[in-house]
Amino acid sequence: MSAPALAPPPVGAVLTDIEGTTSSIAFVKEVLFPFAERALDGFLDAHAADPEVAACLTAVRRAAPGEEPRAVLRRWMAEDSKAAPLKTLQGLIWASGYTGGEVTGHLWPDVAPCLRAWHRAGIRLNVYSSGSVAAQKLLFGHSSAGDLTGLFGDFFDTAMGGKREAASYAAIAEKLARPPGDILFLSDVAEELDAAARAGYAVCQLVRAEDGTQPSGRHPVAADFPAVAATFGLPVPRLSQGEAA
Ligand SMILES: CSCCC(=O)C(=O)COP(=O)(O)O
Ligand SMILES: [Mg+2]
């Protein structure tokens, strides 16, 4: 007789990535990034002296001495660099798009019902993205499912360290005052999951067909958030037709 499959240990908190996990890669690459690229010059012309913008430009000059900061920012955009000054500036630029109604934060239809059910069940929800904390709050605050910011406890960006470094996840667990094994990290990127797993987290790879994500073979996979819930013993809400993936 074969041994019964062991249930995974209960999850007390979820830490979720955004691009490729809660939201489509196409939204980030085809809506958000081009919006920031188009608006960059006008934004810098109007705001270069604002303290937060000036600090970003100083950081760009320090990172690429002798180069024109706008050219550096455009190169970083083309490379999808996760450099902090670029991410901060993108967030500041997106603010006008979200608040003016030009941009709505994309969420896969299965995401909000699960987040609400997990929150109701007392699971602490948190975000970790390369996008700045301000940009994360904009996306969830102006999302296709309404303002979801109240569901989240903490938002983390690369101020905690890179997403492919185990130390970042250890630092986040400390901030959340939880043992790493109590936290489930959700991402589409295998290297991020590797790092979180090294720090002791439970992990799950989101393999969303529409994004063309390939399973790494190194981690549990889920096609959507209800599949995450089923695998890790979290509440599974009943989805209406439009919310099913
Ligand atoms: C906060 S929304 C914009 C996402 C972004 O700028 C990005 O670089 C994607 O990073 P993620 O870590 O969410 O994959
Ligand atoms: Mg991602």
TrEMBL record:
<dbReference type="InterPro" id="IPR023943">
    <property type="entry name" value="Enolase-ppase_E1"/>
</dbReference>
<dbReference type="InterPro" id="IPR006439">
    <property type="entry name" value="HAD-SF_hydro_IA"/>
</dbReference>
<keyword id="KW-0460">Magnesium</keyword>
<comment type="pathway">
    <text>Amino-acid biosynthesis; L-methionine biosynthesis via salvage pathway; L-methionine from S-methyl-5-thio-alpha-D-ribose 1-phosphate: step 4/6.</text>
</comment>
<comment type="similarity">
    <text>Belongs to the HAD-like hydrolase superfamily. MasA/MtnC family.</text>
</comment>
<comment type="function">
    <text>Bifunctional enzyme that catalyzes the enolization of 2,3-diketo-5-methylthiopentyl-1-phosphate (DK-MTP-1-P) into the intermediate 2-hydroxy-3-keto-5-methylthiopentenyl-1-phosphate (HK-MTPenyl-1-P), which is then dephosphorylated to form the acireductone 1,2-dihydroxy-3-keto-5-methylthiopentene (DHK-MTPene).</text>
</comment>
<dbReference type="InterPro" id="IPR036412">
    <property type="entry name" value="HAD-like_sf"/>
</dbReference>
<protein>
    <recommendedName>
        <fullName>Enolase-phosphatase E1</fullName>
        <ecNumber>3.1.3.77</ecNumber>
    </recommendedName>
</protein>
<comment type="subunit">
    <text>Monomer.</text>
</comment>
<keyword id="KW-0378">Hydrolase</keyword>
<dbReference type="Pfam" id="PF00702">
    <property type="entry name" value="Hydrolase"/>
</dbReference>
<comment type="pathway">
    <text>Amino-acid biosynthesis; L-methionine biosynthesis via salvage pathway; L-methionine from S-methyl-5-thio-alpha-D-ribose 1-phosphate: step 3/6.</text>
</comment>
<dbReference type="GO" id="GO:0043874">
    <property type="term" value="F:acireductone synthase activity"/>
</dbReference>
<keyword id="KW-0479">Metal-binding</keyword>
<keyword id="KW-0486">Methionine biosynthesis</keyword>
<dbReference type="InterPro" id="IPR023214">
    <property type="entry name" value="HAD_sf"/>
</dbReference>
<keyword id="KW-0028">Amino-acid biosynthesis</keyword>
